Amino acid sequence: MEVMKQLRQRQIGQIIERRPIRTQHELATALREQGFRVTQATVSRDIADLGLRKGLRDGLSVYVTPDGGGQGASPGAGTTGQPAQSGAADGAQERLRYLLSSLPLELRVAGELLIVRSLPGSAHAIAAALDRVGWPEVVGSIAGDDTLFVAFESRATRDAVLDRLRRFARD
Questions:
Q1: Same-domain check for residues 164 and 99
Q2: Which one, 11, 47, 66, 145, has least CB within 10 Å?
Q3: Helix (H) or strand (E) segment spanning residue 33
């Protein structure tokens, strides 16, 4: 990971520890005050990388780390998406679960591919969340505007992930 990204993500952890941050815009502003040149898209990726989620602090819905504290998660944490997760990967799984359960989805199979269709503009967010979960069954993915193609080595691994995604969509 590049040095500036590491520094920026460390700073994000410190910012959310020191003060309540309710929006990506507030976080971007706080980072700019610290001398970081950021866009909303950069902040959004950092939030996903760190596994930040919304939690209550002093009666406000603010960004917190996956453990509920203000400290930043360790960058680069990864896992298989199975039980006994922690850090950013746990946040990534929750992000994927949230997206799948809150968006209308169509899941179809074609050979070793899984095709996920949803609302325009949502495929990239789903693909990014799926990539961050780091399930070993997923060989790779390609996202367009409303369609995501997910590749697998076999139909068996495709079916295992398809079942998992369907459970996430029902939650």
A1: yes
A2: 145
A3: helix 24-33
